[in-house]
Amino acid sequence: MPSYRKPWAEPYKIKVVEPLKVTTREYREQKMKEAGYNTFLLRSEDVYIDLLTDSGTSAMSDYQWAGMMLGDEAYAGSRNFYYLEANTRKYYGYKYLVPTHQGRAAEHLISRNLIKQGDYVPGNMYFTTTRLHQELAGGKFVDVIIDEAHEPQNQHPFKGNVDLQKFEDLIKKVGASKIPYISVAGTVNMAGGQPQSMGNMRQVRELANKHGIKVILDATRAVENAYFIKEREKGYSNKSIEEILLEYCSYTDGCTMSGKKDLLVNIGGFIAVNDESLFDELRNMVVVYEGLHTYGGLAGRDMEAMARGMEECVSYDHIRSRVEQVGYFGQKLIDAGVPIVEPAGGHAIFLDAKKFYEHIPQEELPAQALAADLYIESGVRAMERGVVSAGRNPETGENYHPKLELVRLTFPRRVYTQAHLDVAAYSVEELYENRKKAKGLKFVYEPKYLRFFQARFERVS
Ligand SMILES: *Cc1c(COP(=O)(O)O)cnc(C)c1O
Prior knowledge:
This protein is an alpha/beta fold and 461 residues long. Helix content is 39%, strand content 13%.
């Protein structure tokens, strides 16, 4: 017997490669400065290991690429649409499908349809685009996630759970007629990719039913959520990912989807609902903003790739490797004493920038600075999830000051090997050792919406 533990390897092999550019520290320092210390404004060709996002950055399989050749590019009634519709029913269980070009388009349509001026939309934390569309439709987002979600080191296995008391308090306070739906996501991106339990979702459904409130799921990462349910929740270890996913969705009235995550495609999304009259409204509206209801802003080949991605992403070997790769990276940092959000989430590891850069106050944007420094030192690209991403309160104009000030390292699916992760982890550890030297940043340009994408900064002196 060998003396080391049985090794693990990625459950795929490489058929096409994309070379990476290796750069010097001086080069990267210059590029970061030119990009206004915003990693979103770097050119991808200047990045060595790109952990900016897992959105649309996955590697498609040979099966998906083969499907691209079967794109039926008819304006109306493409066969790829019907295949996607059938697979959405099969894997997610919803009756009606409206394709959109990506997740935020789905959020736009659902928000415009269901929210009236002055309504409240409770959610288990929020996603940036989801909340913005709710606000643009006249709604007010109310965070009803459990308190544990805001505590970076809390080991709760389901930090994405809805706090039922908070949900009920809101109903009492504003009245159910002012709450068109509760917006539930699993896993919760902004809480660190933390899952919601099946039991919690069931209770959300019960409480919502009592008051005639809809439950709308952000299903973008529901397969990752299903994996956590299988691993952590009593009674689910013998169920398949497919069974868990179907049960989870069955407690909701519909979903929005960004196919760019779980579904392993570079572009695509949809809305799926069970209510026929809501479907009619959405199908009508999608024509205005996206395209005819059988393509919704997508090419036929995109719908085919997404339908095939659905089949692949529920494979246990795939989703296990995807989530455990993230866990492997997280464990390396924990072992090195680097402060991260624990337990590790489904798609990303979040550095706790408040602790990492203890000497930089939140007004000096420690997470933004940390993401910039990581790129300069190593060529690894991450992103800020803190005061910059949180934006301003639309009523007061004040910066939101989120409890969590994080840097997100997000893992594209099937793109990087364990060796890449070792290099990235080493870079973070090295930065942590030299953390005392770091300096904060200040805004020099701030766009009105989703400012983190295009804002520019300079060093505070
Ligand atoms: C990415 C994402 C969205 C938005 O989808 P896009 O395709 O980027 O528009 C919504 N919700 C969650 C949880 C996401 O991760």
